[in-house]
Amino acid sequence: MELDALRNENEYLQAKLSRLEGNTIQYEEDEESKQDTHRKHYPDDSETESSDEEEEDSVAPLPQPKKGVDRKPRTSVSAEAFGVWNKKSDFKPVVVTKNESTKDKIRSRLSQSFLFNSLDEKEFEIVIDAMTEVKLNPGECIIKEGDDGDYLYVVETGQLQCSKIFPGNTEPTNLIVYNPGGAFGELALLYNAPRAATITAIDECLLWGLDRKTFNHIVKDAAVRKREMYDEFLKKVKILQTMDAYERQTVADAFSKHKYSQGDLIIKEGEDGDELYFLVEGEAQATKNIDGELKKVMEYKAGDYFGERALIKKEPRAANIEVVSATLEAVSLTKDSFNRLLGPVEDLMKRNMEVY
User: Fold this and answer.
1) Beta pairing, strands 327-334 & 275-281
2) Is Secreted a UniProt keyword of this protein (predicted)?
């Protein structure tokens, strides 16, 4: 089991490295092509370049730093390594006492944030227990650009302004307003980096704060398990078999999980649609109203997908998708994720969807 996980991680890293190397090679080829074109049209420039090189050779060496002068080390930014090859110390869940009403509020807010969509029920409860209440007055700063950070925050009530001072400016630029359900502060935890922006309360605010240890052990680890869980599944989806490990895991990160029972309608004919579904486990059928009669037009099994028509053609759902097995598990991609991640397979999907 652990060996398989290591192989998956290795495959993912190799695929990512290959993509980076490919980008570098393409860049070098583009630059060489530009230089060839330039030399073709401006042959005399070669003499100028040679002269410039000679001048550069004659430039005096840079002065050496004086002895005894302290030089500040450069700040590095790195993701905190995690995975099967990097075991963490034992984790003891943090429990901040709160009543059920408060837990329900937090549960509702967390369900609105993509950061927590990989958690199972038990993990969700651990995160809820660890959340700390934070109250802010108007104008109060909760995060300051450049500071170290040990918490991420989810907004319960109120609004907060995100601002940043860009190089060359002395005044901050307003970037985004966080509303109830919004989450911020995760970048410092994910990448072990200083705060990237300043967050200030616009009005009275109530936030829920999550500490770094709980985030790393629960939220981040859940994302890793989610990748491993869906990697093998995505390899079996015919239309996605050309994807490399990096692309598959990027898709897995964007998945939302759904569970259904026999007779449930996953998609209803005529409704607007903004999600594409992949069937992980179970069976379903597509039914359509034809001449006033509901007729079955297609069957689905694990590895099949549906719902792409509404996303590609931007039209209402063309059929019902009904669960026929006792239970069914599916994952979905939003319209934005579909456009961003599955653009290369859209043409093939267009051909396939003409079946119904």
Assistant:
1) antiparallel
2) no
Q: Greatest CA span in the chain, whole angstroms?
A: 90
**pTM, 2 dp:** 0.48
Q: Indicate the annotated binding residues.
A: 186, 195, 308, 317
Burial class for 326, CB neighbours closer than 10 Å (0-12, 13-18, 19+): exposed
Other Cβ atoms less than 10 A from the Cβ of 127: the count is: 24
In a domain, 11, yes or no: no
CA angle 255/259/262 to nearest 5° reads 140
Of 184, 217, 250, the residue that ends a domain is 217
- Per the structure, the count of domains in the chain is 2
Is the CB of residue 119 less than 8 Å from the CB of residue 222? Answer: yes
**75 falls within a domain:** no
Q: What is the 3-state secondary structure (H, E, C) of 223-237?
A: HHHHHHHHHHHHHHC
**SS3 (DSSP) at 77:** coil
Neighbour count for residue 236 (Cβ, 10 Å)? 10
198 CB neighbour count, 10 Å cutoff:
19
Instruction: Pick 313 or 185 by higher pLDDT.
Output: 185
Position 39 confidence tier, pLDDT thresholds 50, 70, 90: low
- What are the tokens at 87? 């075991």
The DSSP element (H or E) to which 155 belongs, if any, is strand 151-157
What's residue 121's pLDDT?
86
- Four-residue CA torsion sign, 92, 94, 100, 103: negative
Residue 43 domain flag: no
pLDDT at 30: 53
Q: Of the candidates 168, 188, 217, which is a domain's last residue?
A: 217
pLDDT-wise least confident of 17-21, 123-127, 139-143: 17-21
Q: Which residues are annotated as a binding site for 3',5'-cyclic AMP?
A: 186, 195, 308, 317
Coil, strand or helix: which one is 94?
coil
Q: Do residues 194 and 285 both lie within one domain?
A: no
User: Residue 196's closest CA among 172, 218, 212?
Assistant: 172
Sheet with 151-157, side-by-side order of all strands: 132-136, 205-211, 151-157, 183-184
Rounded to an integer, the average pLDDT of 121-141 is: 94
333 lies in which domain range? 237-355
The answer to the question of residue 89 being in a domain is no
